[in-house]
Amino acid sequence: MSSNAKIWGRTSQVSVISFLGTLGILLFTPFMVFYFYVAVMSFGGSLWEPMSRFLAGTMTLRDFWSLCPSISVEAFLIFGVWFLLQVVFYYLPDILHAVLPHYKGGDCLGAVTPAGNQLHYNINGLQAWGLSHILFLIATALLGWFSASVIFDHWGGLLWVVNIVGYAVAIFAYSKAYFSPSHPEDRKFSGNFLYDFYMGIELNPRIRQFDFKLFFNGRPGIVAWTLINISFAAAQYNLYGYVTNSMILVNLLQGLYVVYFFWNEAWYLKTIDIHHDHFGWMLAWGDCVWLPYMYTLQGFYLVVNPVQLSTPYALFVFALGLFGYAIFHTSNRQKDLFRKTNGELSIWGSKPSFVEVSYHATDGKERHTRLLTSGWWGVARHFNYTGDLILSLAYSLACGFGHILPYFYFFFLGTLLIHRCLRDEDRCRKKYGNGWAEYCRAVPYRLIPGVF
Length: 452
Ligand code: NDP
Fold this sequence. Notes:
Elements: H1 16-43, H2 48-56, H3 61-67, H4 73-90, H5 92-99, E1 107-109, E2 120-122, H6 125-142, H7 150-153, H8 155-179, H9 193-199, E3 206-207, E4 210-211, H10 212-218, H11 220-240, H12 245-263, H13 265-268, H14 272-275, H15 281-294, H16 297-304, H17 311-340, E5 354-360, E6 366-372, H18 376-379, H19 383-397, H20 408-432, H21 434-442
Antiparallel strand pairs: 1-2, 3-4, 5-6
Bound molecules: NADPH dihydro-nicotinamide-adenine-dinucleotide phosphate.
């Protein structure tokens, strides 16, 4: 049994490096999203071309600005309808419960917070995803209200709208944390305005049953991901009269990832996003802008570069993607089931091994839990990240080797997951004390056995 450090959860102190990193991200990333948009729409997907023109002095910031998209009323309307629809779908379990009292919905418990709170969630992400796609299909294929390429057709205008929404939500969340916090004892203040704005103060901001993190992390952006890809495929068809096998591959592999997310939404409640990260600009702007624009770069790139892959290569990429997905899926599932059944299950044909650990929340109570050391969790401490990375490499490889841009997501995810893994381990070390050290001795590597 482990001894426990008293404090866990997000760090309250901001180092100079963290502050500079925060400042850099706040200043640089919004510009980056516009830069990538311009690189695809005006330079065929070349990231280097606009930069080289800047450096050679043949393009000024004013020229760059003229290539940026314009804001439009249609984009506001499209986003407004989409957003309202997602809010209605979010409340569907409550609406159905009011009409059919026996309908319970997907009531789930989240993880214990550092202050000892454990929140209820009424999850229905799969329902929201399914209904959104059915409505899109009816509106495009059956009623012909608009073309399936509608999202691509307004991609530029929407970029402005989601930025406005992302900033508005971040500013609202920051103010709410001071004036009307949902769980005051779970707030974290660093004393640094920029860091608090970026990382968030409240852990689980809510307005009544409306949970900001569950909604923004898991609804407008991720539900849209597959529709955005479908829209890119439709745009490719409108432009060239065919859809390439690379576009189909990207749609299939990313579709698998999105459906997994909603199929296992209860699992998502126990991930770092929900039970550890506070809700600030990083999540608000990230969910509204970064996710829909940077996670879908491959499909966007393929609209202007209709890459047709040879059949053996396409099969290789598909197999690689399925291999990565299988690791991602089974490792997350092993941990989830292990925690749900308190270790009463079979993993790879035998009873799982584990390290027993304990921790204290600030309410002073001692709680116990277990860290799995069997299955993928005996291979490396974050092998679920390794599976995710292999899958993301497959999305990029599906776009061929013409440009580096479609590989951006792979490098970004690699950086994010390595940083996340170090951040998570720091928190677990504080939370579980010696128990965590014992676990690290049992499973010495993080992502790749023998390497890291
Ligand atoms: P994990 O699902 O790995 O959750 C880590 C937490 O699980 C730890 O904080 C700890 O929490 C618990 N834990 C750690 N080791 C063990 C163990 N051996 N046995 C039991 N519990 C353990 O991490 P994430 O939430 O970061 O990621 C979930 C998935 O989402 C991953 O597959 C990742 O690849 C993916 N992801 C994708 C992103 C994207 O942008 N595409 C971004 C982030 C994640 P506790 O305090 O409960 O002990």
